[in-house]
Amino acid sequence: MADAQYDPDNIFAKILRGEIPCHRVYEDADTLAFMDVMPQGDGHTLVIPKAPSRGLLDADPAALSALIVSVQKVARAVKAAFQAEGLTLFQFNEPAGGQTVFHLHVHIIPRREGVPLKRHEGGMADNAVLAEHAARIRAALEAEP
Ligand code: AMP
Prior knowledge:
The chain is an alpha+beta fold. 30% of the residues lie in helices and 17% in strands. It contains three helices and five strands. The protein has a five-stranded antiparallel sheet with strand order 1-2-3-5-4. The termini are far apart.
């Protein structure tokens, strides 16, 4: 079976084009980070490359390099902002791998001992809460050395 193609009308492509809003936490020339609207825990953040790819396997290595650097930067800020004891990162590929939005993205979820993750795509978070969480992470990014 032929590999599925990138759909430029996927929801994250629309966010990148500014056609739909997001709670932005970080942006540079190659990447964008914003709050997941159905968080599996407080502070659940997504980091995406601006270059189009469905997932890990069809991504340009240069885009991947920029992505992982941003993931580390944002992960540090998420950990600080939520006083997390640890972090869980997910990156799903294709429906069989659990992917539901077909533009490469990395999930960053702050973790504390004994607090389980909520269900993937379990429910929409309150907009005001997401805005406050995004502001917290932006502040932590500004405080980064
Ligand atoms: P997945 O493709 O399974 O790795 O996950 C896609 C993630 O995107 C899910 O965790 C959704 O909650 C999240 N999501 C879907 N639509 C939006 C949106 N408009 N803004 C932010 N996050 C979204």
